[in-house]
Design a protein that fits this description.
The chain contains 7 helices and 8 strands, in the order E-E-H-H-H-E-E-E-E-H-H-H-H-E-E. It has a domain of about 90 residues. It is α+β, with helices and mostly antiparallel strands. About 10% of the residues are buried.
Length: about 270
């Protein structure tokens, strides 16, 4: 959570708006989901052990006070901030101006910018860095830019997040027997009809977006063939059968299909 001085703003210091991290974890445990409950938990436990070890190796390679991702973001913003001009108002605020009418106000005391990136993410934006560059001309100002970055992006915080380890356990044959008098019986299993589904269930928004893309592709072909489209309540364009001629595969005549063909035969004149 974002702590601004002694005031708790109630905001998460992250710009993640989608569930990609959950989807990645769900994809990693895909091979263990079909196993029994104990086997599935063992698969997840071993995966977490491996994941923590991999992050510990990355932490040893990291240099500097920030995490590698935060360092890359801050370096890129430093490069862009050199093209901005900051003007002091005599108090705690600066007016920062850049190209293409990019002008914002930076509040140094509250650590905010009108672009909202500094407040939402916790890393100084390009306007804030331009302000800090202007403040560096004052010998009494704080010159260390890392003091303006939120603590969640520091390498020490990253190490604390992975300081807890997943303990290894003995083999299943050496597990102690349960003394519970109640014996748990597995529920009755019924084989479902069809092939078992492996893919996750798509949300309503994903299904609608795919339908819209498919209808747009069909609409182009239908328009070229002389068809028309009718908008529905959900905004999806559906093809109308009006003005579309049907050709029979048996008699090769237009106006009907093979199911309604009455054996007319021959190529009749087009009406």
């Amino acid at each position: 959570m974002f702590f601004n001085g002694n005031v708790h703003t109630g905001r998460a210091v992250s710009d993640v708006l989608i569930s990609n991290m959950c989807e990645v974890f769900n994809g990693k445990i895909e091979k263990g989901r079909d196993k029994p409950i104990i086997g599935c938990l063992e698969y997840i436990r071993e995966y977490l052990m491996k994941r923590i070890c991999n992050f510990m190796k990355e932490m040893k390679k990291a240099k500097g006070p920030l995490t590698p991702t935060a360092t890359d973001i801050l370096t890129a913003r430093k490069t862009v901030a050199s093209q901005y001009i900051a003007r002091w108002n005599g108090g705690d605020k600066y007016q920062v101006t850049g190209a293409l009418q990019d002008q914002h106000v930076v509040d140094v005391r509250n650590k905010t910018c009108t672009c909202r990136k500094w407040e939402l993410i916790g890393i100084p934006c390009r306007h804030a860095i331009a302000t800090l560059n202007e403040m560096s001309k004052d010998p009494e100002a704080e010159l260390d830019i890392y003091k303006w970055v939120h603590k969640v992006y520091f390498l020490e915080t990253w190490k604390k997040a992975y300081s807890f380890k997943v303990e290894p356990i003995k083999g299943r044959s050496m597990w102690p027997k349960s003394e519970c008098p109640t014996k748990l019986i597995p529920p009755p299993h019924r084989t479902q009809v069809g092939r078992p589904k492996k893919k996750r269930r798509q949300s309503e928004g994903e299904r609608l977006s795919k339908k819209q893309k498919a209808s747009q592709g069909d609409g182009v072909n239908a328009t070229q063939e002389g068809g028309s489209q009718k908008p529905t309540n959900d905004g999806v364009q559906k093809l109308s059968r009006k003005h579309i001629s049907v050709t029979c595969s048996k008699c090769k005549n237009k106006g009907h299909n093979s199911r309604t063909c009455k054996g007319q035969g021959g190529n009749q004149s087009k009406k």
